[in-house]
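Task: encode each sequence below as C-alpha cells.

Item 1
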Amino acid sequence: MTAVGIDAMEIWTGKLKLDLAETFAPAQGDDPGKYTKGLGLHASSFPDVYEDIVTMAANAAHRLMERKGLEPEDIGRIDVATESSFDNSKPVSTYVAGCLEQVYDGDFHHANKGERKFACISGTQSLDDAYNWIRAGRNRGRAAIVIATDTALYARDDPGEATQGAGAVAMLVDEEPSLVELSTEQGFGSADETDFLKPNQQFPSVDGKRSVNVYLARMREALDDFASQVGDIHPDDYPLIPFHTPFPGMVRKAAALGYRHIIRGTDVEDLVAEEIGHQPMREDFESDDEFRDAIREYTDALTETERYQDWYADTIDPTLEISREVGNWYTGSVHIARAAGLKHARENGRELDGQQLLVASYGSGAQAEVHAETVVPGWEEEIAQLNIDEQNRKRYDLSFEEYEQIHDVHNHDTEADVEEFTAPESEFVFDGWGRMGERKYRYVE
C-alpha cells in the first residue's frame, strides 16, 4: 500500500509580538510568572494591520509551493481549517486560491476547495480528508494543500487574553511523503459539550474550568479508542507526542493523565510503584469522591518522579518550544507542536527514521483524535527549511498601548484607523473592501 502523509510544511506567524512578562503582565498588575510559569507562555503573535487569516494562509501556502517547485496544476485540493472565518458561505480556501493565482500563470479552477469547522481539531480533520481523498484514488496524481489558519483573539480582560496568537500552517499531503506517513488507525473521543463556543460572535465564550476537564476527558476516550485498535501502548513507543496546545500549561495536565494511563499494567508502573505505590483502583474506595482524590494525589506524586520528568523532558517539552513564543493558533496549534518536536529533534541529532509520533488533537464542543505518524527518511531536510525562528526574531515588539490599538484593528466591532507597524515585502496583504463587502487582497513585491 502506497504511503500517504505530510510531504512538507510551512509556518507563517503574525508579524507583531506581545511580550507577556515584560509588557502585558505589568500593564495588568500581574506577576509575570502567572504567564511564563502558570500558562507556560512567553509571548503572543498578532497580525499587523494588513494581515489576516487569508494573508497568513496564502503566504504559508505560497512559500510551500515555491520551495517544492509546484504549479497550480500539481494541486488538486485546497482545504482550510479555521475558527476565525469572516464569511458564513464563501470558504477561506477560495480567497487563498485567488491570492495564489496572482503569482502563478495557471489557476486552481480544477481544484476542490473547502473549509472545515470543528474548533481546533478541524486542522487534523482536514488532514484526514486529504488522506482519504488520495487513498480513494480521486486525486489523479495531484497533491492536496491543507492549511490551518487562525487569529485567536479574546475580549479585553478575558481570562484567555494572555493565550492569544495568530498564524498559519500549510501542509502538503501527498503519496510517498518526505516528512511523516499517516496511519490508518485513529482513536476518537467525542461528546456534545458547551465548553467553548462562538454563537454569532467574534470572541469566544469560555467556561475555563469545564474546558480543561472536557479536554482531558475526551483525550482519555480517544486514547482508549486508539489502544483498542493498536493494542497495548507503552510510553517508550513514541519519542514525541504533539498535543493540541491552547497553552503549554494545559499540555502539562494532559501529559500527566496520558502517562498515568499508558503505564497502567506495564513494567514502568511496577518501577514507579517502588516510589509511590500502584495506581488507585475504584473498587478499593467507598465513593467516587474518595477515588478521585486518590487519583489526584497519585498523579501529583507521579509527576514528581525522576522517571516521569525525564519522559516529559524528552517526549513532550520539545513540542512546546514554538507555542511558548507565539501563543494559541487554534487549528494550527497541534501542527506547530509537531513541527517544534521534529525541529528540536533535528537540532539535537535525534534519530527518528521509522519511529512513530503519537499526535493528540482536540476541538472544543468537543472532540479529540489520537493517531500515529511514522517519521520517514528525509524528514531532517524538510524540517531544516522552516524559518520560524527567523520570523519570530523579526517581529515588531508592541508596547501595551500599541497592543490595545492592534486589538481594536482586528476587533470586528471596532472602528480603528491605525498605521501599519511593519512594511510588507514579497507577500500577500489585505487591500480593502470590494463592492459586496468582500475582503480584497494583493501581492506586494
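Item 2
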Amino acid sequence: MNPMNWLVVQPEIVLLVMACVVALADLFVKDEQRRPTFWLAQLSLAVVAFIQVDQLQAMMHAEELKTGLTSMYGMQQMVVADPMGRLLAVCATLTLMATLAYAQPYIGAREMLKGEFFSLSMLSLLGVLVMLSANNFLVVYLGLELMTLSLYALVALRRDHAVSTEAAMKYFVLGALASGFLLYGMSMMYGATGTLEIGGVFDVIQAGRANRDVLTFGLVFIVAGLAFKLGVVPFHMWVPDVYQGAPTAVTLLIAGAPKLAAFGITIRLLHEGMNGLARDWQQMLIVLAVASLVIGNLAAIAQTNLKRLLAYSTIAQLGFMLLGLTPTVVGGNTVSAANGYSSALFYLITYVLTTLASFGLIMLLARQGFEAEEIKDLAGLGKRSPWMAGVMLIVMFSLAGIPPTVGFYAKLAVLQSLITTNDPAYITLAVVAVVLSLIGAFYYLRVVKVMYFDEPTESVQIVGPAGARALLAINGAAVLALGLLPSGLMGLCRDAIVKALAT
C-alpha cells in the first residue's frame, strides 16, 4: 500500500488550492456584487462535493465491487477516509454552499461582500474536512485550529461594528481555552500510551499497558474540549453571545459545518480511540446531555431575541443528540452502539438542515439598516408573506419534534436507540428527554403564535433575491419531505456507522 496515498486527501487538496485561487482572483474582480468570486467559490465547492460523493459511493459499495476499500488510509496512516467521515464531509460541503447562497445578499448590504469572506469560509471548511479525516492527534488539532481561526476572523470581519468585535473577542478567548483543554488532554493521552495514532491509543488501552490515572485525567480534558466545540452545558457560555453578536451569515457558518466536525472527532476520539474507557466517558456524556436539555430549554423560554433563542435551542438540540452517543459497545455487542450512533448522526444532519432554513429566513427578512433578530419582528409574517411564514412554521415544528417534520423522526430514532437497550437507566433518560422536549415546544410554538396571531408592526414589503427565496423553499420542503420519507437518509447513516464500527 502506498504510505502517502494522496487520493485520500484529494478533496482537501482541491479545496485548499481553490481557496487560494478565490482569494487571488478576487483582487481582479471589479463587480461590486462579487458575482465572479461567488460563482467561482460555489463551483469549487461543487467539485469538492462531487469528489467526496464519488469516494463515498465507492466505499459504500466496496463489497459489491470487490475492491475491499471500505476505508482508506494515507499520509503515513495520519488520515483516514471512511464512509462516516465522507458522509459528514459531503454534508458539510453542501451546507457551506447553501450558507454562501443565503449570505450573499445579506453581506452585500453590510459591506462584508469581499473575497476574504469566501476564502475564509472555504478555509474553515478545509479545517472541518481535515478533522473528519484525522487518524492522529496532531491532525485533529491542525484541523481544529484551521477551522476556528478562520471563524474568529469571520466573526470580526465587520471591524467597525462594536457588537461583532465583542463577539469575536469572546469567541477567541473561550475558544483558545477550549483548544488548550483538548491539546492538554491529547498530550496526556500521548504520555499514557506513547502514541499519537488514534488506533494505536485503542490498542494500548485494550492491552492494559497504559497508566489508568493519567488516561482518566486526559479523558476529562478531551471531553471538556469536545463539549465546548459542540456548545453543550457547562461549556455553552459563548454560544448565545456569539450567535447574537456575529453577523447572521457568520452565525450560520458557526452553526452548520463545525457541528458536523465536532460530531466526527467525538466519534474518532472517544469510540475509535478510547472505547476501552467507554464506561467513563459515557457517564460524562449523560451528564452533559441532561444538563444541556435542562439549561437550553429553560433559558430559551426567557429570550426575546430570535438568534439568542436559536442559540439556546442549539444547546438543547445537541444535548438530545448526545443521548444517542451514550449507548456503548458492551461485551463485544455493537448493536446498541450502532443504533445510537446512527440515530445521533441522522439527528445532527437533519438539525443542520433545519438550522440552514431558520437563519436563512432571518437573513432574507433583514434589510439595509435593519436586522430581523427580535421575535416581535416576525409579528404578522403570516399576512405579510404566507410562504415565508410557512417555511418558518415547518422549521419550528421540526425543532419542537412535531410530526410530520423530520425533527419528530430524528427525536424518535434517538429515543428508540435508548429504549431498545432494555436498560432501566436508559429508559429513564428517554423519559427525561421527552419531558424536557415538551417544555422546549413552548418557545417554538410562541414563534408560530407571533407570526400568525399578532398584528404586523410594519407594512414594508418583503423582497429578496429570487435565488435565495427558491433555496429557502427547497430547504423547507426538504425538512418536510425527510420527515415523511426518512428511511433513505437513515439507512445511509446506519450503513456508514456500521462500516465505521467494523473497521
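Check on item 2: Confidence is low (pLDDT under 50) at residues 329-333. Strands lie at 72-74, 79-81.
End of task.
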